[in-house]
Design goal:
five-stranded antiparallel beta sheet, 17% strand
Length: 639
């Protein structure tokens, strides 16, 4: 949330956004200086191990708050000479430094495991070497192989540059850069408070002490500033607000406000209706619901749906290519200018750097919007089908390779991790569990008989090799359909049959099914249900019964009046207009060449030819339910 203004309670002065950002920046600079000093002093394996152990020198358990743990260990920091800050500002610095030092412990364990089992060929480990490295890493059995490969490449780069392996992660990585932020959660009411308005639940008031100069000489240089906050409608009325984290981005102050409110508890087992979610490239998500019957049968609830975001992804890849060109040009200018700040190209190089930052921000915002939209759609599908669990395939170990340069890049740039995090957040509001299942063979085997599928380009082109359409070669089964629709059936069926194997990961706290049991997998088949039409006797034992003509729904009973000249008149009779005299609404929107709807080669959106923004390119197919209600035949025309 954006802090647009503030009021200095001592002078009554109304602070503009620029002045407010300046005063918050002064306080953030003081905190960042203390955090940097703490990290430099304790960026070593001994201190990190002591902090991660959770015990002090006397064997007492360390507090969960990072700033309290650092004070128990005696890790203090000092402010510059002549600068006066209160103890709560020092708390924020210790809290931020403690969180960074605690988070590096996991990276240190992974790097130590990779170094202790360094393979003969870092580019390709043997099965025995993979087993060794997973054994050497704490919790390595469930660790994604991409993480281990990334650390291996990082160590290999150090080896090529220095001719030896690094000692640990602290030699491999320097102390991280300290962001300018204020963790107000480490403070008490003497530094910051937040209260919700009693008359308007959508408003809140944040009060905090900020310096009036960059180097406050005494406590008189600190004053209370009241900042009104407009809460989004997603914050429940009865939620309890907590002190936010303040960040400065683009010359403005943003507040990350946390809140808590009671939600239903998600169950690990006991699910009878589950939603399966499969990933795709242009069809970002395919999802549908399955029901587990008491006799063990699994049936599908409808035909499922798809969340298509081809237009958004095309815009994302255009921005990526634009950013790559800007990076290449900036690197060329850097080689030409060196470190000469007076060079003729120094100004152009600075402009390019600013433009790179803008493009990166646009990509980040686009990814966030896409992740929230896709997650909201998936959770809505679960709510509509009364599902109590969402099963998603675990693709952390998927690597984009062997599919061409363009396809590999597009696969590696997907936002799957963000979407899963957003799905977990939104599903927790409704007590719906989110469980990851192994992705192996979910798109390869038939959902009805587990026979390996034969893939082709399209249903009307069965002899053309492809991957989009799947056909079961088993004669008694004969299932065929979209590859992604078969995958979500397999994912949901695997989750329902393996739900007794669901565990909670100790590190992340997420629910996960780690392995596939062959005996349970054999029962993860979707049983077809006979439709109403198939129950009717269609044997030709006599003449076909005459069917009376049924009027077309919403069709005029009387001929349409004569159409007058010009554009005026009523809709002609029939199901739909016989001609489109006007272009879609989006085609009349004036948009520049950098908008999301710019057509490119290979992407021609039909419903939004010259579209009007994000939601004209994120399409969700309407669900097809098991029973379709009858439409009244004698309904007149709509006027």
């Amino acid at each position: 949330m954006l802090l647009r203004t503030g009021v200095d309670e001592k002078t009554g002065e109304v602070l503009s956004p620029a002045v407010l950002a300046e005063r918050v920046g002064w306080c953030a600079d003081l905190v960042a200086a203390m955090v940097g000093a703490l990290l430099v002093e304790h960026w070593n394996s001994v201190d990190v191990e002591v902090l991660a152990s959770g015990r002090d020198a006397g064997g007492r358990r360390l507090p969960s708050n990072a700033w309290m743990a650092l004070r128990r260990l005696g890790w203090t920091t000092t402010v510059p000479v002549g600068v006066r800050v209160n103890d709560r500002v020092v708390r924020m610095a210790q809290e931020q430094a403690g969180r960074v030092l605690r988070s590096v412990k996991w990276r240190a364990d992974v790097t130590a495991g990779v170094l202790s089992t360094w393979p003969a060929d870092p580019r390709r480990r043997t099965p025995a070497e993979w087993e060794q490295v997973r054994t050497a890493i704490p919790g390595g059995e469930g660790l994604a192989s991409s993480v281990i490969k990334g650390r291996t490449r990082q160590v290999a780069t150090f080896l090529a540059a220095n001719g030896r392996l690094p000692v640990d992660v602290f030699e491999l990585e320097g102390a991280p850069r300290v962001p300018r932020m204020l963790l107000l959660a480490a403070c008490d009411r003497q530094q910051a408070t937040i209260e919700r308005s009693e008359t308007d639940p959508a408003k809140a008031l944040l009060r905090l002490q900020l310096p009036t100069r960059s180097d406050p000489r005494g406590y008189g240089d600190w004053t209370w500033v009241a900042c009104p906050i407009s809460l989004p409608p997603t914050v429940p009325t009865g939620a309890v607000l907590h002190l936010p984290t303040l960040r400065i981005t683009g010359g403005r102050v943003r507040a990350d406000v946390a809140y808590t409110h009671p939600v239903p508890k998600a169950r690990r087992t006991g699910h009878t209706v589950a939603l399966g979610v499969d990933w795709g490239l242009n069809t970002l998500l395919s999802a549908g619901a399955l029901r587990l019957h008491p006799d063990g049968r699994i049936t599908a609830l409808g035909a499922g749906g798809q969340f298509r975001a081809a237009g958004v992804l095309a815009k994302q890849h255009r921005l990526r290519r634009h950013g790559e060109r800007l990076h290449a040009k900036a690197d060329h200018y850097q080689r030409l200018t060196g470190r000469d700040s007076q060079h003729n190209l120094a100004g152009k190089h600075a402009v390019l750097r600013d433009e790179i930052g803008h493009v990166s921000a646009r990509r980040s915002n686009l990814n966030d919007a896409l992740a929230w939209a896709a997650a909201r759609w998936a959770v809505d599908q679960a709510i509509a089908s009364a599902a109590t669990v969402i099963y998603v395939e675990d693709l952390r170990s998927m690597e984009a390779r062997g599919m061409g340069r363009t396809m590999n890049t597009r696969l590696s740039q997907q936002v799957r991790g963000k979407i899963v995090d957003r799905i977990r957040h939104l599903a927790a509001e409704h007590g719906v569990a989110v469980v990851t299942v192994p992705a192996r063979n979910t798109s390869k085997h038939c959902p009805q008989c587990l026979t390996p599928l034969r893939h082709c380009k399209a249903p009307d082109r069965p002899s053309v090799a492809g991957w989009k359409w799947a056909i079961c070669p088993h004669q008694s089964c004969g299932w065929q359909g979209d590859r992604d629709h078969g995958a979500w059936r397999r994912i949901a069926a695997r989750g329902l049959t393996h739900q007794a194997k669901t565990v909670t990961d100790k590190t992340s706290g997420h629910m996960v099914i780690r392995t596939v049991v062959d005996t349970l997998e054999a029962t993860a088949v979707v049983t077809t249900t006979a439709s109403k039409a198939s129950r009717r006797d269609r044997s030709k034992t006599g003449p076909t019964r005459h069917q009376p003509p049924r009027p077309t729904p919403r069709r005029r009973r009387a001929p349409s009046p004569t159409q007058p000249h010009g554009r005026a008149g009523k809709r002609p009779e029939g199901h739909a207009p016989t001609d489109r005299n006007r272009l879609p609404r989006a085609a009349h929107r004036h948009q520049g060449v950098n908008t999301i709807s710019t057509p490119t080669t290979g992407h021609q959106p039909g419903g939004a030819a010259l579209g009007a923004g994000f939601h004209f390119h994120a399409h969700a197919s309407p669900p097809r339910w098991e029973t379709i209600p009858e439409i009244q035949s004698n309904s007149g025309s709509l006027s």
